[in-house]
């Protein structure tokens, strides 16, 4: 093809944008609506690795479901963020701007959960979610972005 690969044509970007909106709606439901009721007390963790360390080193204290959900769920659910952000926003194709945007978005989600009391502010969630976004970013950088540069 000419200067644009098929991955960056208008129709493909439209499909990716629609998938990203669907992802945002699903995540909004998971994070703020589904099986969530406002709690009475504020819950928060500001100490990095305070909830991750017990999950890693005291695994037998947790059910398999809780362990998988808290560790891998927080990573896997945010992999798409690492693909769609750099795909849709050219300025976020470099690692540091991408990471900054991801951390700001995740911080906003955690603050919203704290204010609405339908979750808890946990710095470890930001850490695990960022790891998930980084995995998606690496996938984007290795698979999708190089195709654009090689087809010019």
Low-confidence stretches: none
Structural class: mainly alpha
The overall pLDDT, averaged over residues, is 88
Please report the total strand number as a whole number: 2
Biggest sheet strand order reads 1-2
SSE order, one letter for each helix or strand = HEHHHHEH
Describe this entry's structure for a reader.
This protein is mainly alpha-helical. The protein has one domain (6-150). It contains 6 helices and 2 strands, in the order H-E-H-H-H-H-E-H. It has a two-stranded parallel sheet with strand order 1-2. The longest helix is centred in the C-terminal third of the chain and has 28 residues, at 123-150. The mean pLDDT is 88. Keywords: Membrane, Transmembrane, Transmembrane helix. The chain crosses the membrane at residues 12-32, 71-89, 96-115, 127-145. This is VanZ like protein.
Structure characteristics:
152 residues; mainly alpha; two-stranded parallel sheet; 6 helices; 3% strand; VanZ like protein; Teicoplanin_resist-assoc; transmembrane
């Amino acid at each position: 093809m000419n200067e644009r690969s098929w991955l960056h044509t208008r129709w493909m970007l439209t499909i990716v944008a629609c998938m990203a909106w669907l992802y945002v709606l699903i995540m909004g439901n998971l994070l703020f609506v589904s099986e969530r009721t406002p709690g009475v007390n504020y819950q928060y963790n500001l100490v990095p690795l305070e909830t991750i360390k017990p999950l890693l080193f005291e695994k037998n204290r947790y059910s398999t479901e809780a362990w998988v959900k808290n560790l891998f769920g927080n990573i896997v659910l945010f992999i798409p963020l690492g693909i769609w952000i750099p795909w849709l926003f050219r300025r976020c194709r470099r690692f540091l701007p991408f990471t900054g945007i991801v951390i700001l978005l995740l911080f906003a989600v955690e603050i919203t959960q704290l204010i609405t009391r339908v979750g808890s502010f946990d710095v470890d969630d930001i850490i695990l979610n960022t790891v998930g976004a980084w995995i998606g970013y690496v996938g984007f950088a290795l698979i999708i972005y190089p195709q654009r540069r090689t087809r010019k």
